Amino acid sequence: MSEISQQALRAEALESLLVEKGLLSEADIDQTIEFYNERVGPMNGARVVARAWVDAGFRERLLTDATAAIAEFEFVGGEVQKLVVVENTDSVHNMVVCTLCSCYPWAVLGLPPKWYKDPAYRSRSVREPRAVLQEFGVELDPRTEVRVWDSSAEVRYMVLPQRPARSEGASEEALAALVSRDAMIGVAKL
Amino acid sequence: MDEVLSPELAPPMNNGEVVFAAPWQGRAFGMARTLAEAGVFSWDEFRAHLIQIIGVWDRSAAMDADYEYYGHFLAALEAVLAEKQLLDAQLLASRIDALAARPHGHDH
């Protein structure tokens, strides 16, 4: 006997009604799911970060107008119509949240992890960012300023992490492999 | 924080990261994106309902209550479709009942 949750039944019922109405097909939905599972993810943001580390001109453009700067990558996935990239330095650490729901720059980071959407992260990252960062394992110098960026329907944020020490001479591709999703949300250091 | 991410970033399906914890979550997301891309509603219209529904939960639920993001997501999808007069709540309720009444072990 299979146990089907109430939510699963709701989704199934809704899908059957929408299919009957001719608003979509099962195959359309399959295709959309496959797209977000296989083509959109943080590997895109990692390429952006690596390029900013090796190309000062690109870094400048990225920090000025990230939406325009990443156009050359032709990423798919959306939600970057107004992307702002904030740079971590020795004196400033940035982290990103969406306090109201789950806004996130899909084209560069994929879909958000579960904890990003949870009430605890949404409320605590604003109230006590240092404590949250500590739980993620990020130890900051007390003199480091923490800036929390609240994503919205209008603006999405991504963090440009600091380039790891001892990565001189690494190729852009090798550098991209050093970048983690969490570092681009600002809850990890590299 | 308990999700595994391999050091080398790859598409979610390839690096062990769970995008959807249960199939119905993927169906809910897939329906909403498909309809938005088809212009049935805009993503901003959908998001306004999502923010409203999550806001009600945030203000009323106990701190340790279970939070099911995709449950809110599904409710927002229903709300935006109802707003567009494309979903009848009664019809949805009776369809849910009909599906729930299927014999156990049905193959779906």
Question: What are the salient characteristics of this protein?
Answer:
heterodimer; A: 190 residues; alpha/beta; Nitrile Hydratase, Chain A; 2 domains; two-stranded parallel ribbon; two-stranded parallel sheet; 11 helices; 4 strands; 46% helix; 12% strand; globular; B: 108 residues; mainly alpha; 4 helices; 0% strand; disordered N terminus
List the helices and strands and how they pair.
The complex is a heterodimer of chains A (190) and B (108).
Chain A: H1 6-20, H2 26-38, H3 42-54, H4 56-64, H5 66-69, E1 83-87, E2 92-97, H6 106-109, H7 114-117, H8 119-127, H9 129-135, E3 145-150, E4 156-160, H10 172-176, H11 181-185
Parallel strand pairs in A: 1-4, 2-3
Chain B: H1 23-37, H2 43-60, H3 69-83, H4 89-100
Helix pairs in contact in B: 1-3, 2-3
Model description:
The complex is a heterodimer of chains A (190) and B (108). Chain A is of the alpha/beta class and 190 residues long. Chain A has two domains: 6-38, no CATH class; 42-185, Alpha-Beta Complex (Nitrile Hydratase, Chain A), CATH 3.90.330.10. Chain A contains eleven helices and four strands. A two-stranded parallel ribbon of chain A has the order 1-4. Chain A has a two-stranded parallel sheet with strand order 2-3. With 108 residues, chain B is an all-alpha fold. In chain B, 56% of the residues lie in helices and 0% in strands. Chain B contains four helices and no strands. Chain B has helices spanning 23-37, 43-60, 69-83, 89-100. The radius of gyration of chain B is 17 Å and the shape is globular. Chain B starts with 22 loop residues before the first helix and ends in an 8-residue tail after the last helix. In chain B, 32% of the residues are buried. The model of chain B is unreliable at 1-7 (pLDDT under 50). The chains are: A alpha/beta (190), B mainly alpha (108).
